[in-house]
Amino acid sequence: LLDDNCDVHTVFDGKVVYSIWTPNDYNKDLYVMDIKTGVNTLIETNVYNFFRAINGRVYYTVGNDDYCPLFSNNTEGTDRLEIMKNVEDLTYFEGWLYAFKGSGLNTALVKISLDGKQRFVVCTQLKEIVDFVGNYVYYIDTSSVLRVVRNDGKDNRAIASGMSKKNVIVESDVSPTVVVIEIH
After folding, report:
1. What is the DSSP letter of 59?
2. Which terminal residue of the chain has fewer beta carbons within 10 Å of its beta carbon, N or C?
3. Is the Cβ–Cβ distance between 106 and 89 less than 8 Å?
4. DSSP secondary structure, 147-171, as one string
5. What is the spatial distance between Cα 147 and Cα 129, in angstroms, rounded to a whole number?
6. Number of CB atoms found within 10 A of residue 10's CB
7. In what order do the strands lie in the sheet with 157-160?
8. Which of 54, 74, 67 lies closest to 27, judged by CA?
């Protein structure tokens, strides 16, 4: 169905989401192909990175490292929405997008609704996400402190210092309990 020059990102609802390098090999063009009909639809040009398909929409960034806005579009390419400007790492958890904004000591984790209309800062001075468990986010801050915060940005607490993601296992179904294991 597709040629060798494409990257297949995902298959859902009888559709294949894929991209093809543009002639200058700088960015890609994002397409959706209907498997039954074989019809290809160009969703976007100059795609920097495909993120994922959620609820019948595709999420992707456009541009480059300096200018990297997050967009979503339907599979017909007719309902393009800009979600947020300058998005770096992106995670999806329980109906929300979580994006890294800023850099170094100024890095924040921002929780964003799928349409981009609701957004708020969950935490700042973020180094790396450890895990999402229930209504909590476990993360390492820029001082290598393991912290837990509710996913609404409230109740931010330090748990242990001198940590990295590879040193932490989070186990919890109900409350924010943490098992910390040092790996030597």
Report:
1. E
2. C
3. no
4. EEEETTS-S-EEEESS--GGGEE--
5. 10
6. 14
7. 126-133, 136-141, 146-150, 157-160
8. 67
d(CA 166, CA 157): 20
pTM of this structure: 0.82
Strand order of the β-sheet with 28-34 is 6-12, 15-21, 28-34, 40-54, 57-62, 70-74, 81-84
The per-type count for the chain, helices as H runs and strands as E runs, is 0, 17
Predicted confidence (pLDDT) per residue in 55-90, tens digit: 999 999 998 777 789 999 999 999 999 999 888 788
Q: Which two tokens stand for residue 121?
A: 């800062």
How many other C-beta atoms can be found within 10 angstroms of the C-beta atom of residue 134? 13
The string of pLDDT tens digits covering residues 97-150 is: 999 888 777 889 999 999 999 999 999 999 999 989 888 999 999 999 999 999
pLDDT at 22: 76
- Residues recorded for the chain: 184
Place of tokens 């890609």: 28
Q: Structure tokens of 148?
A: 């837990």
Pairing of strands 81-84, 90-93: unpaired
Residue 133's Cβ-count burial label (10 Å; 0-12, 13-18, 19+) is: buried
